[in-house]
Amino acid sequence: MNGRSGLSSARITLFVIFILVISIVGVYAFVRSSNARISRQFQHYESLFAQREYGLLAEELPRFIEKHPKFEGIPRAYFYLAVSLQERGDYRGALDAWQNALRLNAGKDILHRIYYGMGICHEKLNQIDQAVESFSNCFKVLPDGPFSPKALYNLGLLHGKKGNLSGAVESFKMLLERFP
Q1: I need a labelling partner for 59 at 20 to 30 A (CA). Which of 7, 92, 127, 166 fits?
Q2: CB of 122 within 8 A of CB of 114?
Q3: Residue 31 burial by CB count (10 A; 0-12/13-18/19+): exposed, middle or buried?
Q4: How many Å apart are CA 164 and CA 136, to the nearest integer?
Q5: CA-to-CA distance for 82 and 50, rounded, in angstroms?
Q6: Which residue blocks in the chain are alpha helix, DSSP H?
Q7: Distances from the Cα of 127 to the Cαs of 25, 71, 89, 134, 157, in angstroms?
Q8: pTM, rounded to two decimals
Q9: For the segment 112-159, what is each residue's pLDDT rounded down to a tens digit?
């Protein structure tokens, strides 16, 4: 009996190992197909962004972000959402999305764009001091970046609006010197 009992327990052990291996492979395949589905869905959003379909993005991206917070494309999703909301005139919502994008992104090029977007939203919400800070950060992060001339121009206007004429003159002077 002992011989049979040992053989039977070895079979049970092999069967359990077999079931575990099958389960692990199954879970791996499920996760992989799920990630592929999420990536395809995000590629669709990238396509909508390229086509400037801001209405659809503003509607769909918040649910996508909430449903897939650990997806690797979430920093870009917040960027797309911020641009979409800003283009639709939802400056408060856009500002929230910009702040999330700022928290999750690190590259100078993207930070340059994020700060510029934040400056626009703050200005539209009549938050002049925050707008000045955002436009200043936009310029500081990437002085020769594509949004730097606009940031300096807006800084000049905002300094003038605040009554800071020397700040306005300095911004406009820098604009003319760096971007003739």
Answers
A1: 127
A2: no
A3: exposed
A4: 15
A5: 14
A6: 2-50, 54-67, 74-87, 91-104, 108-124, 128-141, 148-162, 165-178
A7: 54, 33, 16, 11, 14
A8: 0.80
A9: 999 999 999 999 999 999 999 999 999 999 999 999 999 999 999 999
